[in-house]
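Researcher: Let's do a round of design. I'm pasting the structure tokens now; please hold your answer until I've finished.
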């Protein structure tokens, strides 16, 4: 729990990783390009005192993760979002077994979301069924720009992808997190295009689609889609660090999100270890829309409480929020009015 000025915040970091990008795990040059690009994001968007050395960044291990999130950090709960990248890393980028061990040892603090690739066809479907049972999956993380043999990405509305989404419904996997946003070397920008969210969100109302990175740099496309689809959410990973280097740009991002989709559809995420959550939470709690950006309504304490944890907790029933920290949120209500933020802006 994080506390400031007498206000208490239940923090859910909805997007964290435990990765291994050491040289011995690289399958080829593309694994090196990928982690180097991650490190550039980390180095260029973090406060100077928060920048790690490169070797630590490539592998930090489970103990450091627990310390940064829960001991030195403010998180009450965190959700792993697995990124496999088997074409780039010998044993995968995400450390699945160690992440699962942490979750089993700390069920009150950690939730694990696994990944699948619909280009694996029937064999992958069988694996998804086994994983759903053994990992008790409530969510998955999809990476539509991931390379797979000679394929450089897929669309969520591809026939095989639809079969996997339908299987998620059958298996009780409710939350589908999708990286739709900044490109990462060597992956292709257009393979992260947010447009296919529009189709599947309409067709699969039993699923929640959490668009990680709010579609950046296609924020406007994302907002126009999410304001029409009540089962589409915005994850702030990669967007929120701009609170440090480009605070007015972040004000524009959060202002647009509040206008279009409202306070119940936005989820905090650090994308650890891209960034650590402590400074992000501190900056966000202290943040306010600049007075001269009057087209956006000021952020309230209760809105920040929802974004920092209560909305994510509403999507994951295993995350228990103490009664004294609860405030009403429509995050899990499929009939919620998604453009509610516009009213606040008009009335401000």
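Researcher: That's everything. Go ahead.
Model: Designed sequence:
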């Amino acid at each position: 729990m994080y506390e400031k000025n007498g206000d208490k915040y239940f923090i859910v970091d909805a997007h964290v990783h435990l990765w291994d990008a050491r040289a011995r795990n690289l399958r080829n040059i593309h694994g090196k390009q990928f982690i180097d690009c991650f490190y550039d994001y980390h180095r260029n968007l973090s406060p100077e005192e928060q920048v790690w050395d490169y070797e630590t960044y490539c592998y930090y291990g489970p103990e450091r993760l627990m310390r940064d999130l829960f001991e030195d950090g403010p998180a009450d709960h965190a959700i792993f979002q697995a990124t496999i990248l088997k074409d780039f890393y010998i044993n995968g980028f995400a450390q699945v077994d160690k992440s699962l061990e942490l979750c089993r040892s700390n069920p009150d603090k950690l939730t694990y979301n696994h990944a699948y690739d619909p280009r694996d066809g029937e064999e992958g479907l069988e694996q998804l069924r086994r994983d759903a049972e053994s990992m008790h999956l409530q969510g998955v993380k999809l990476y539509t720009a991931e390379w797979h043999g000679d394929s450089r990405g897929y669309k969520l509305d591809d026939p095989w992808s639809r079969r996997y989404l339908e299987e998620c419904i059958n298996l009780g996997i409710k939350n589908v997190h999708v990286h739709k946003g900044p490109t990462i070397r060597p992956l292709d920008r257009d393979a992260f295009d947010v447009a296919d969210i529009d189709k599947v969100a309409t067709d699969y109302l039993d699923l929640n689609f959490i668009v990680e990175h709010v579609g950046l740099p296609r924020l406007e496309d994302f907002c126009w889609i999410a304001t029409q689809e009540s089962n589409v959410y915005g994850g702030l990973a990669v967007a929120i660090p701009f609170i440090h280097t480009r605070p007015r740009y972040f004000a524009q991002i959060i202002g647009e999100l509040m206008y279009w989709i409202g306070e119940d559809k936005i989820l905090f995420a650090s994308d650890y270890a891209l960034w650590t959550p402590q400074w992000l939470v501190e900056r966000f709690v202290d943040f306010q829309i600049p007075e001269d950006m009057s087209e956006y309504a000021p952020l309230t304490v209760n809105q920040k409480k929802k974004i920092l944890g209560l909305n994510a907790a509403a999507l994951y029933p295993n995350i228990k929020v103490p009664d004294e920290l609860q405030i009403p949120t429509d995050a899990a209500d499929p009939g919620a009015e998604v453009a509610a933020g516009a009213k606040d802006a008009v009335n401000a």
